[in-house]
Amino acid sequence: MMTQIAQPNPAQNPFLPSQFTAPKRLPAIIKRAVGVGLSVGVLVNAASANVGLNEPQASNALNLPSGNLLNDAPNNSPNDAPISTAMMAQNPAKSSSTVRDFAKNSLNNQSLNLNSSQAQNYGNFGDAARLDGGFSLPSVRFSANAHAQNLQNSANLGVSAANPSAVNFTTPNLSAGANFQEQRRNKEIAAWSLRQINASLPLIDDPWAVQQLVQMGAQMNALVRGQSLLSVVLINDSNINAFAVPGGLIGMNAGTILSADALDEVASVMAHEIAHLSQRHYEHNLDNRKKFLAIGLGGLLAAIAASAASGDAAAAMMIGAQTMGAESMAAHSREHEREADRVGQQILAQAGFDAKAMPRFFQQLQRQVSLNRTANAFAPSFMRSHPFTTERLSESTQRAANFTAPTMTQKQAQAQAFDALYWRLNYLSKQANETELRVNAKHSKGAQLALAMYLADNQRHQEAQSVYQAGQFDSDDVLACITAAHLAAAKQDYQQAVDVLAPCQAIYPERRDLRLYLAQHAINAGDFAKALNLLSPLTFDGSHDVLAWDLSQKAYTLQANHAQNTHAQTIATIHALRARSQLLLWRGQYEGALQANAQAAMHARTDNATMLLTMLDNDKAAIVSARDFKP
C-alpha cells in the first residue's frame, strides 16, 4: 500500500519548524549585554550564547511507512528528531538597477589583491566547506570561475571598489604556520563542535539567512587564511554574541544582527572572529585550547539546559562559565583581543565595509554593560577581565581614521542587504508582530516581504499576494522569488511554487539556498527525482549539510513508497537509510547513525549492491571515528 505524500498543515508556515517556539528572553535590562561575543571569540565564548533557538526535536525524521522494506529500520529515540527542513529564505532585495549592476559587476572592480592560495581558497569554498544546518557557501562542486560568478550574482556586497583603504595595510597571516597534523586536528575539533552544536543549540537554519553570513565570512576569510571555513551557524538567541572554533567554525547569535544598525556592524563582529582564527590565538597552547573546549562548551550546554527552566538561571550559569574561561586565559586574552580588533578592522576595510563600524558597535556594547552595572544586574566578569571598555574603543576609533569609507554605491547595496536580513530574522525569531511589520513595510522592502510571509502563514492569502505585488520586486531578486514560492506553498499549490522558483534557481544554480527551497517544493509536488537531482551536489561523502540530508531522506523514502518494482524500492530504501544515518551523525546521535547504517547495509547485502555496501562500510568507519573522537 503506497503512502500518500504528507501535506503540511495549512495553518503552519511550511518554512518554519512545526514546533518552532520563540526564544526565552532574559530580563530586558540584561538581555543584550550577557555574553558579549566581541570579547570572546572562541568556543568558550559560546558559553555566553544564552540560547533560545531551534525547535524541540522529537519526531520521526524517516516517517517509516508500513508494508515496505523501511519497516526494518530502527525505532527512533526521544531525542532522535529531524531538523526542520522548511525554514528557508533568500537574497537581499535589489530594488534599483544601480545596486543590481553594482552587485553583479563588483568583482570586476575589486582590488583585494588576493594571493593565489587565498584566491583558490575563496573559489573552492563551496567545494571544501561542507554545509550543515548552519551557514556555509553553496557546496555545489563548480570551478573557481563558477564560484566567482556566484559571488557576482549573489551581490557580494562587501567587496571594495577601487581603493579599499587609504593606506595599504597588510593583515598578518599566521594560519600558514600550522602544520598538517595541527590543521587536521583543528578540523576534527571543529567538526566535533559542530555536531555538539547541532545536537544541543536552537539554530536558525533558514538557508537564505545562513547564506548571507556565509558569503560574508568566506569573503573575509579568504583575505587572511589559507584554509576555508567549515561552517557558520546562526543561533536563535537575542543576546549579542559570536564565537570561533579552531578549524574554521564560526557561530553568531541572531541578537547580534538584530542589535546592529547596519550590515557593516555585523561584518565587524565576523571580522573579529575571523581574526582570532587567522592569528591562531587558541592554538598556541594545547593546554589552553583543551581548557577552552572543556569549560566553554560545557558551560554553553549547561546554560541551554538551565534556560528551559529559568532565563535568570541560564544567565547566571553562562556568566559562571565565562568567568572560569576568563580566569584560565587571563594572561593571554588581553593581547589576543587587541590583535583581533586590529586585524579584524583591517579585514573589515579590505572587504569593503566601513572600518568605523567596529568602534560604533563597541560603543553600543559598552552602553549595555554600563546599563547593567547601573541597574545592579548581571555584569559578566569575563568582560571585566578583557580590555573591552575605553581602551579598545579608543584604539579602534583611531585606527578607523586611516581607512577610506565605502562608496555610496556600496553603502546603498549594504543597506538593502541588511534591511532584508534584519526583517527576515525578525520574522523567523518571532520578534516582530503584524503591526510592526505593517508600519515598517511602508518604507522597507525587507519588512514588506516578511509581512507577506506572515499573512500567508496565517491563511490570509489574498492580503499576502497584494502586499507582495505592491513591492514590484525585480524578477531576479532571489529573496523575492523565494517569498513568491512561499506564498504559493502556503496555499498548498506546490507545483506553482516549483514553477515560480525554478527559473530563479536556473539563473543561480550554485546557490545552496535555492536548491534546498526548490527541493522542498518538488518533494511536496511529488517530483522526487527532481528533488534528489537538486540535492545531489549537497550530499556527497563527508557532507555535513543536515538540511540536505534530511530532505534527501524524505525524498528517497517517498520514492521507495512509489517504486514500481522490488529492486527500485530496495535501492531507494538503502539511500533513505544512508541519508538518515548521515543526518543523525551530524546531530551527534552516533548510535542511531550506526543503526541506520546497519539497516542500509543489510538491504545492500540482500540486493547484492556491492558498490553501495562499500560506501556504507566507509560511512560506518567515519561514524565510529566521530563517536570515539575526544577533543
From TrEMBL:
<keyword id="KW-0482">Metalloprotease</keyword>
<feature type="domain" description="Peptidase M48">
    <location>
        <begin position="228"/>
        <end position="396"/>
    </location>
</feature>
<keyword id="KW-0645">Protease</keyword>
<dbReference type="InterPro" id="IPR001915">
    <property type="entry name" value="Peptidase_M48"/>
</dbReference>
<dbReference type="GO" id="GO:0051603">
    <property type="term" value="P:proteolysis involved in protein catabolic process"/>
</dbReference>
<dbReference type="GO" id="GO:0004222">
    <property type="term" value="F:metalloendopeptidase activity"/>
</dbReference>
<protein>
    <submittedName>
        <fullName>Zn-dependent protease, contains TPR repeats</fullName>
    </submittedName>
</protein>
<dbReference type="InterPro" id="IPR051156">
    <property type="entry name" value="Mito/Outer_Membr_Metalloprot"/>
</dbReference>
<keyword id="KW-0479">Metal-binding</keyword>
<dbReference type="GO" id="GO:0046872">
    <property type="term" value="F:metal ion binding"/>
</dbReference>
<dbReference type="Pfam" id="PF01435">
    <property type="entry name" value="Peptidase_M48"/>
</dbReference>
<dbReference type="GO" id="GO:0016020">
    <property type="term" value="C:membrane"/>
</dbReference>
<dbReference type="Pfam" id="PF14559">
    <property type="entry name" value="TPR_19"/>
</dbReference>
<keyword id="KW-0862">Zinc</keyword>
<dbReference type="InterPro" id="IPR011990">
    <property type="entry name" value="TPR-like_helical_dom_sf"/>
</dbReference>
<keyword id="KW-0378">Hydrolase</keyword>
